[in-house]
Amino acid sequence: MYPAELKYTKDHEWVRLTDAAAAEVGITDYAQKQLGDVVYVELPDIGRTVSKGEVFGTIESVKAVSELFSPVSGEVTAVNTDLSSRPEQVNSEPHGTWIIKLKATNAGEAAELLTADQYADLVK
User: Fold this and answer.
1) What is the tally of structural domains in the chain?
2) First to last CA, the chain
3) Does residue 103 sit within a domain?
4) Across the chain, how many H-helices and E-strands are there?
5) DSSP letter assigned to residue 102
6) What pTM was computed for the model?
7) What CA–CA distance (Å, rounded) separates 114 from 116?
8) CATH classification of the domain holding 27
């Protein structure tokens, strides 16, 4: 259910390290199911620096508004602008829809994140 190539946070974000310093961030299938139909995603500015665990935006559904937390520290290098007009992508393909891309500044932080099996145990 949870792709093994991703790392996970206890706040229900995932991170895909595309190389030593580049990372994509999204929300998990569990998170999107808890939220329900996503209607809006607030994206940060490109160039913004975030620390691990820092709020970088919000995601709004018909049920609630939730904060999005950065799984690693870094600089925002891209935002998924498609989500402005099609936020429901997060529901249809949560592990394939990135929200932001980061240039990670501390690659060691990813080692502290959960594996797919650890995350699956967390959300049982």
Assistant:
1) 1
2) 12
3) yes
4) 4, 9
5) E
6) 0.95
7) 7
8) 2.40.50.100
Concatenating the DSSP letter of every residue in 39-92 gives EEEE-PPTT-EE-TT-EEEEEEESS-EEEEE-SS-EEEEEE-THHHH-TTHHHH
Domain ranges, residue 89: 18-110
pLDDT tens for the 124 residues of the chain, in order: 899 999 999 999 999 998 878 999 999 999 999 999 999 999 999 999 999 999 999 999 999 999 999 999 999 999 999 999 999 999 999 999 999 999 999 878 989 999 999 999 999 9
Distances (CA, A) of 31 to 12, 68, 85, 121: 6, 11, 20, 15
Rg of the chain in Å (alpha carbons): 13
**Does some domain include residue 53?**
yes
Does any domain span residue 80? yes
